[in-house]
Amino acid sequence: MAVPIMAPGGGEDGAAPVLSAWHYPDGAWVEVGALVCRLEGRSGGTVDVAAPAAGILQQHCPEGGIGHPGAVVGMVLDHSDALAAPARALSGSPEEPVVVPFRSRAGTGEGLVMPLAEAGAAIPGLRLWEPDPDPPYAEAHPAPTTREERFASISEAAAADSRLLSMEVGVPVAEAHRAVRVLAREWNDPGAEPIIEDLVLRALARAVEECGLASGPAGLTLVRASSDESVALAEVSRRDFREAVRARASGGDRAFDDCEWVLTSVRELGIRAAQPVLTAGHVLAATLSGVDQAGSIGVTISYESSRIGVGDAARLLARVRMLLEEPYGLLA
User: Between the CA atoms of 143, 144, 146 and 147, what dihedral angle is there, to the nearest 10 degrees?
Assistant: First the structure.
């Protein structure tokens, strides 16, 4: 079974951490508890991350990569996972030379890649690249030397490459609708009549917190035929569900400007899909669309690629779908 290696949360300054060093090469065998990588905060604090299991290390984040608390930076694979992994050098012997077509990939480390006797190949007489004693642009683009320069370089590169991305998932909501009807009948409380958006907001809040993206107030905008209604709620994922429904029905308990992310519902108007607008400073934005002929709603998120990776976005939406397919866990 593959076990994720996750960046710990709660940085001292809330800044995204940088993976400053891998202590083992990609494909090396690590024991449980072995320190596999080091994360570095903007103010200079460092933390070494331990392997959660014994197995074969698979690196997902390169050295110098910038992420966020809770991000999956690597995996520990067992032998069956390693055999299934395509085109990865997962084991080897220190005595075995490996063909490395790029000079920068050659190095030493626990039996994976050895320095090659000639330029780029283990086969005598075969040269895959020519040595370049004077790399181009070396003087024009010197490597950052100080911590501040390195962080500035990483931040600039991340901002330059950042893209506004979106992702959508369809969620069967027969059980969620049934739960809403049962609660409305059992509570018999006009001040706390649940709607499907209450469950979707709660599912998103749990998934967002589990991914380490945000824990602050969440916003909900209900688009209706004559007007829009916007509210903001604190501790959506942890508070008593009936209390959360009552707070939403009474206009919320936080200022909307304080929200870290927002869910906009166009479900009542039967809109099949809508692109969420990501507001500056928000972690993500989401929309909830109407039910289709198969009985599914659409949940779409917008996010910045420099803050949330594609894999993290996919895992977040998969978690939302799982919570809404069996929504009774959301009521606890």
Answer: -130
Among 4-8, 17-21, 99-103, 289-293, which is the least confidently predicted range? 99-103
Give pLDDT, residue 61. Answer: 83
- Token pair of 272 as six digits: 């099949």
Which residues share a beta bridge with 56?
Answer: 29, 77
What radius of gyration, in Å, describes the C-alpha atoms of the chain?
Answer: 25
Asked if 273 contacts 262 with a C-beta cutoff of 8 angstroms, the reply is no
Average pLDDT over residues 48-64: 88
CA distance 295 to 286: 20
In one-letter notation, the amino acid at residue 300 is T
How far apart CA 6 and CA 74 sit, in angstroms, is 7
Distance CA 38, CA 48 (A): 4
Q: What global pTM score does this model have?
A: 0.57
pLDDT digits (tens, 9 = 90+) for 7-28: 876 544 455 678 888 999 988 9
Instruction: Return d(Cα 163, Cα 235) in angstroms, integer.
Output: 29
Are 221 and 274 contacting, i.e. CB atoms less than 8 angstroms apart?
no
Mean pLDDT, residues 196-219: 92
Mean pLDDT of the chain: 79
Domains in the chain and their CATH numbers?
3-91+131-160 (2.40.50.100), 163-331 (3.30.559.10)
CA distance 74 to 4: 6
Q: Locate 76 and state its tokens.
A: 């520990």
